[in-house]
Amino acid sequence: MRWKLWLLITPALALLLALFVLPLLHYLWLSTQAQSVLTGLQPRAVGAAQWLRLWNDARFWQDTWQTLRFSTVSVALEMLLGLAIALLLHQPLKGRTALRTVSLLPWALPTTVMALGWRWIFNDPYGPINGALSALGRNPIPFLSNPSLTWIASVWADTWKTTPFVALLLLAGLQTIPADLHEAAALEGASRWQALRHITLPLLTPYLLIALLFRLAQALGVFDLIQVLSGGGPAGSTESLALYAYLNAMRFLDFGYSATVMLGSFLLLVLLCGVAAIGWHWLERQRREAH
Amino acid sequence: MARLLVLLWSLGPMLWQLYTSLRPAEALSGGGAAAWTLANYQQLLQGDPPFLRYLFNSAVVGGCSTLLTLVLAVPCAYGLSRLGQRSSRTLTVLVATAAAFPAVLLFLALLELARDWHLANNLLALSLPYSGLCLPLAILLLQAAFRDIPLELEEAALLEGLGLWQRLRWVLLPLMAPAIASAALLVFIFSWNEYPIALTWLSRSDLLTLAPAMARIAGSSVYTIPYGAFAAATVLGSAPLILLMLLFQRQIISGLTQGALKG
Amino acid sequence: MSIHTPPHQGLRVQRLSRQVGPQLLLDNLDLDVAPGEILALLGPSGCGKSTTLRLIAGLDPVSHGEIQLGGRTITQLAPAQRQVAMVFQSYALFPHLSVERNLSLGMELRGVPSQRLQEELDQVLALLQLEPLRWRRPAELSGGQRQRVALARALLRRPALFLLDEPMSNLDAQLREELRAELRQLLRSTGAPVLYVTHDQQEAMGLADRIAVLRDGRLQQIGTAEQLYNNPTNRFVARFLGTPSINLLDEGAIQLGLRPEHLQLRPADQKLPEGWRGIAATIAHQEWLGDRVIVHLHGGRHGQLKLQQPQPAGSGPWQLCWPRSAELHFDAIDGTRRP
Question: Which C residues, 46 through 65, put their C-beta within 8 Å of a C-beta on chain B?
């Protein structure tokens, strides 16, 4: 009987394997090749030369820094805002379902579509933000042309889109906490803040962790938003690792190096998520031992 | 009060797009006239190719991906849910990790695949990688739903003389209908919004799906500021999904929460 | 009015065992159920009674042993081919189908011609008084109604064997008593053997022709309720049957088993007749149950004892006494019955 079950499982599993594992293996091979316009688009083995090049590539490290900066700030904001919204939606207020749907709309829209919208909103000098500032007699803020500010605009846009997802996830987690726990706490005279700290957050921990890891992994691969909102500019200040890999492949036609960049990014992703997960568990242990 | 803020935060940008799309270009560059116009929409709908073409392409790919994903995910989820604890646990964790993977990192390998197998510029072929990318979430969701159906129901059907196919058709799948609907919606939304793979697989302008089409429009003009037309594109591009959300909000939300909970 | 089932030779189970990993769930079970007989599988949870049912139904694989039904060996057959109908503890009705569809689905997919299908369906609906509920969904039915639908589904299967897994445990006590006689009559009228699992000894005694007591996967004793009650093969069976449970008094290598209704209270200084024995006892408290009284006593070194009598007892002093002929002797260590 069991073999019949495996028969049902295999096709999907095979596709997953082909889609997720094979590419990475392929990249591994490709990163040891030079395949570009210079080699007539044919692969030529070069050992670890591409990796050495990656290590010495200032633009790669610059992009790594930018991607990290974008991801950590964005995810941190999303977690905080998401938690706030989840707590809000958890209250039995009127119009709660409608509000829940409305708050989810940003997530449902294609990133590229709204990225175009954000370009206009942040536009200097005609976008609404700068328009309002001008009307108030203030100087306009050149969001998209000042390298130190563009990344903030991208964080804002990304937060807008993905916070609902985090909020929904945390809301689901909140709904699993039995109501009597809060009632008991209220009877003992605990304030709302104390209840939040000592009951809600500890029980919400697994969901917070999942949301964190999920969003972190996704954010490190940011591509759509950056490409359409700023094209990686101005002056490459918002360029992400994924965008760099893409440029290497599609614009510079340097496939070998592109694979190297992507594999490098992937390793970074695994490292970061691993650190986040371990760090979280370590914090949890500390907290528990403190009691 | 907080509710109002959330409302404003979520809807604000989109409402602004709507407003912008109805204003003529001169008004936007500070020309001041309080005019309203549909010219932006006209420009889009009569463009070459007409904007609606992109929506159509996205719908085709979306529908195809949804079908393919379900065909693969439903049996797989059933098998996993009836498998013993140990084996299914490991597989589920693996599937969950795949779900968190940023798909953009796969684009190069997929590009080479498209080249070698002549899958480029083919809307139906695009549904292959899309299904693969949606499989993890669909499997997690459906597996949880299968688990929720008490085993005794299936055993009763078994004793009544129903074979596997009959059990699926008459008992299990009808009870799974809500979960399947949720999964289908999530797959459709994903396909609609996907960008990097569509970008690299489709180059013919009349075959573009919505996401790359928008990017192309965004990069098209450098000197003028056709933000009215851009905004109109944004509105038209968002409309189908907003409609979908409003119609199926419950299924979409429950699908996300279920998938998330079991992760 | 009864449902005709084809003639058959009953159920025979030989050396049936099931082992999962290190755990032996069922250990060499032997039993027979004749056509038209109701055999109850009785025991505490985890004793293997549900396991037995599932093995006979084919829902779990057998580790070793044989199952024969109506002369056919069905041990390796798929559930659908065994001609067995089962009523689950939760009834397992299809929630998305109406009562009528719940009943007709199996028949339709088994290829029963539609006219006969309708006839039998109407017949069973009338028999179990389900006609007014025909179009309702399971969620709209009460526990007792759902049980009837589950029974109807089993009846329509025209099986060679009925398996019932604690079908009354979801119903409240009063309903259980009312339905017991109806259920017995219905099951007997089919003419097929019936295997009935329960943890409730009163239900077993009231409903079954014979009872098989199981413990930790092993058969303890099989016989009529009377045989098990008056002549238990071991301490476990003696303790399991009878409310309140049997009293056990330690006497060195032997334990004396005394049923509460065989004990009597007599004035402490009264002389006892030939063949009787008495011990000193004080009353701890009494439970008045309407038709009888249960008197809880301190029996000195014998610990807590229970006695049953029609009327409440006065203040004493009392001696607790009994005819020695009513004693059951058990080995103090392993509990087996000594003559």
Answer: 57, 59
